[in-house]
Amino acid sequence: MGKLFKIMFNKGFLLILSLPLLLLSGCMQSHVADDYQVPFTSHSDTTISASDNTIKMVNAVFYQSFIGGDWRYKGSTRQNNSINAYIQIPEQLNMSDEAQENYLQQAICPSAQHQQMWQELKGATLAVHIYTHKRKYSLYTNCINPLITG
Q1: Which residues lie below 8 Å from residue 96, measured CB to CB, with a gap of 6+?
Q2: Bridge-partner residues for 139, per DSSP?
Q3: Domain housing 125
């Protein structure tokens, strides 16, 4: 009887110990996945005017701009009728949100010089996001298409 109790105790103990470890592992994986979430986009959705080629053009423009320095361009995603370009910065900027948005508009949004990219965007919105650690906590601004506004 003592031997049977030891076997049952060990199996029960292992089961009790493994359950919290599995839950903890799942929470950790979920926490890491939050930083890499990419919105799902359906290729059959006709409201998306940004093609894969448009994404490549946006990426090319931004990758050229962030070759050196501490700011890192992390790619773009498309969601509905918008392209979201993500830039990771080493620390928060010492400016108000409004000042940061103006800075993004003036210094980071691509200029009219990138005419082919702006033409390719057509009616899609280009949003530039900056963040320090997690994309979901980014600050962003919608870039103004210079070909539409003059």
Answers
A1: none
A2: 130
A3: 52-149
